[in-house]
Amino acid sequence: MKLLAVVNPISGGVDKNPFIKKAVTLCENYGLDLKIFKTTGQDDEAHLKAELKTFNPDKVVSVGGDGTTLFTAKALLNTNICMGIIPLGSANGMAVELGVSEDPLQAFKDIIMSNIITDLDLVCVNKEHYSIHIGDVGINANIVEGYDKDTSRGMTTYIKHFIEALNKVDPFQVNIACNQKVYHKKVVMLGLCNGRKYGTGVPLNKEGNPMDGRFEIVLIEKINANLLIKAGLSSINEAFIDNENNTVISTSHAKITFNEPRLLQLDGEVIGTFKTLDVSLLKGAVKFITTQQNVYV
């Protein structure tokens, strides 16, 4: 078996070398052909696609967080190569969604051993940007932007930018055309969900399923102390999901417009500012290696 590991060395500030050493030893012991591809930030997509053609792996392993998972998935579009996830980033939301083991080496063993291959959806925005997990406009996108620009990483840095963004909450008008209806709302955040929960464990909706051919638009009209407490509790028990201040729309295509250009983040990456978002669902775009621990199987 030929395995290509796509490694983001800096994701989450997590040292990937201990895992790589264990993975190499495991593959040598069982006669598996493992190749390591490390991202550098310079033409990574083109280099990875070239590596895929040259090496022609049986399976691809994404080693990092949600951003690395998305990067790997995009490179595998229009191929029959399947992929799995090793959760080693600051946000491992998609790994959690899909029942991936928290132990990186066990997750790697599961990828090697499993014959359960499922179809995983992708969300496409404006025909050129993609999300495999959760994207949003509003307060969380502002948090991601601040975190992305910071030289520090980790939960302390995230909390710092969370507090800063919370103090600058600015409700905005959004218009959504989908399902032969038009919705008009004033919100502090709009979520685009292929899954249900952020990497922090806080869910945005109960309906999300990354394998059902639909995505969810979540409209949050206000954020206050009580809502934040509920958000924290909801990471433990989904019965605490705030439905009073949330509107959830399930669809396969939507056109979203704002009163002025708004910052968009997708899977932890700041994409830019947009006044209009044309969002569509690419059903079964990626072949995903999973186990029976995945609640969607």
UniProtKB/TrEMBL annotation:
One of its GO terms (molecular function) is kinase activity. Residues 1-129 form the DAGKc domain. It comes from the Bacteria. Signal peptide: none annotated. The keyword Kinase applies. Pfam families: DAGK_cat (PF00781), YegS_C (PF19279). The keyword Kinase applies. Keywords: ATP-binding, Kinase, Nucleotide-binding, Transferase. InterPro entries: ATP-NAD_kinase_N, Diacylglycerol_kinase_cat_dom, Lipid_Phosphate_FormReg, NAD/diacylglycerol_kinase_sf, YegS/DAGK_C. PANTHER family: SPHINGOSINE KINASE (PTHR12358), SPHINGOSINE KINASE RELATED PROTEIN (PTHR12358:SF54). This is Diacylglycerol kinase.
